[in-house]
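Hi all, long-time lurker, first post. I run a small reading group and we've been trying to get comfortable going from sequence to structure in the token notation. Rather than ask abstract questions, I figured I'd post a concrete chain and ask someone more experienced to write out its structure so we can walk through it together at our next meeting. Sequence below, copied exactly:
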Amino acid sequence: MAVQKLKNRKAAQSQRSAKSHDVTAAASSRYSKRKTLTWDELEDWQKDNEYIITGYRPLQHNWKGCLTSVIAYLHNETVNIHSHLWASAFFLYSLFTVYPTYIHHHDHTSWVDVVILGVFLLSATLCLAASAFYHTSCCHSKEVRKLHGFIFRELILPESSQLQVSTRCHAFDYSGIIVLIVGSFFPSIYYGFWCQPSFQVLYLGAMMVAGLGLSMHVAGAAYLVLDPEYAKPTHRGARTSVFIALGLGAIVPTTHMFMVHDFNELVTEMGVNWLLASGALYIIGALL
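-- Answer (accepted) --
Happy to help. Here is the structure in token form:
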């Protein structure tokens, strides 16, 4: 009797195990057939914004899957990818056509004008391309997110802090934003202080130090937003504050110009109307 009971118990356990396996397999198959997942179906390390609850791409574990998702179906990164990708292509086109189209026809332009405008257009191209790359590849795998932290881990963090680096994918996105903010000031400051080269150097140098963190003792914006600690959702407000503060750096040179020129001159020589518009867009984008 005891032997028979033991056999019956093992048979029941085997049946329950098989049923559980079938349920798991069915669930896995169901998820694999779906194009997108919900917030609750993500792994913990994938979760960033709890207010976006649907439209997540499953982990692809290959670049073909990431690239296919760009055009094959809609998800919550579709608009982000295409808006940045095509804008990047536009600025890249402008980078190669700005000289023959605009600069070449003016008698008093030089190679410096080409460099100044090229810095702005290149920074816009890099920023948008980096963002498109991030939004495309963030569904690849956990390992790829680690790879995206390579620049910060190997080049910026002290060796003693390397063990604190966590998985992250925003490094390219954040660094691109900083590059664009700094690069977009080049034309305005250069032309606004055309007759005052010392102030050109002063303000452009200050923006580069603030943006790229070149100072030995003062952590710049790049250091702060690329620190893995600031990649956490809990520090979203801190990242926003850094971007806004960097964008508001234009207030100092603009105020300087207001003190020595009238508004019409600022519009003509510095493009201050576009500078103010870009500052407002930076703030709105950071808040979003």
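A couple of things your group might point at:
The longest helix spans residues 2-33.
Residues 78-287 form one domain.
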